[in-house]
Each structure stands twice: as structure tokens, then as C-alpha cells.
């Protein structure tokens, strides 16, 4: 598998991940399952946005700033869309968990980049 194939596969998986986050964020689940404001819910937000951040940086090759803007807008959009849905509510705490996951992904990526550049010299 060449690097182009890996990048295309990664891009496809990132798009699928964005779609899944949107589906679950809007409560499109089986039955009447509505996520609660538990710690597990926040961990899920952190993990989802961590994965999305790495996907954008690794496979779409966005800059850290652009990836951050895309994910912040995406997180806000999910929370605002929930305000229009029955049995759902937008949450500032969910958005903060999204930002935390995004930040962890962006910072980890920059640290790895820094280490890789240092090992080349």
C-alpha cells in the first residue's frame, strides 16, 4: 500500500468519523436513547474530537490553525443543531469537551512533529 492509498483511506475514514459524530451528536440512535451529562459522555466528546483532529492533520494535511477552526465550528454546529431537535439540548459543557479533545489532538500532533524534526538533524 503506497502513501497515496493510505492518505485516501485516512481521508475516507475521517469523513466517516465526522458523519458518525454528527449522527450521534444529534441523537440519531436506536430507540429513545438520549446521552446524559455524565463523565462518560464528556470522555466520548474528548475522544471523538481528538480522533477528528488527528484525522484532519494527518490525512487532510490541514494546518493546526485551520483544523482547530474547522473543529470548533463543527462542535458549535452540533450543539446549535441540538437546540432545534426534540428531546435534545445543546450543552456548553459538551462543546468544552469537544475543544479539550481537539486541543489534545492538536498539541500532541505538534509535539510529535517537533520530536520528528529534532531527530532529523
Total of DSSP H or I helical runs spanning 4+ residues: 4
Q: Look at the structure and give the mean pLDDT.
A: 86
Uncertain segments are none
- Total domain modules: 1
Secondary structure: number of strands: 0
Instruction: Note the overall shape.
Output: globular
Percentage of residues in strands:
under 5%
Q: How would you spell out the order of helices and strands?
A: HHHH
The structure class reads mainly alpha
Percentage of helical residues? Answer: over 70%
Straight-line N-to-C gap = 28 Å
Main β-sheet description: none
Quick structural gist:
The chain has 121 residues and is an all-alpha fold.
Question: What features would you describe in this structure?
Answer:
The protein has 121 residues and is mostly helical. The protein has one domain. Helices cover 76% and strands 0% of the residues. It has helices spanning 3-25, 39-58, 64-83, 92-120. The longest helix has 29 residues, at 92-120.
Topology:
Elements: H1 3-25, H2 39-58, H3 64-83, H4 92-120
Helix pairs in contact: 1-2, 2-3, 2-4, 3-4
Q: Which terms summarize this structure?
A:
121 residues; mainly alpha; 4 helices
Amino acid at each position: 500500500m503506497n502513501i497515496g492509498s493510505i492518505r485516501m483511506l485516512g481521508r475516507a475514514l475521517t469523513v466517516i468519523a465526522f458523519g458518525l459524530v454528527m449522527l450521534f451528536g444529534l441523537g440519531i440512535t436506536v430507540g429513545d436513547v438520549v446521552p446524559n451529562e455524565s463523565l462518560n459522555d464528556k470522555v466520548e466528546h474528548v475522544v471523538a474530537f481528538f480522533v477528528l483532529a488527528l484525522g484532519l492533520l494527518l490525512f487532510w494535511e490541514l494546518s493546526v490553525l485551520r483544523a482547530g477552526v474547522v473543529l470548533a465550528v463543527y462542535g458549535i454546529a452540533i450543539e446549535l443543531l441540538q437546540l432545534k431537535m426534540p428531546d435534545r439540548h445543546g450543552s456548553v459543557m459538551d462543546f468544552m469537551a469537544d475543544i479539550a479533545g481537539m486541543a489534545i489532538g492538536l498539541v500532541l500532533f505538534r509535539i510529535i512533529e517537533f520530536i520528528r524534526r529534532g531527530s532529523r538533524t
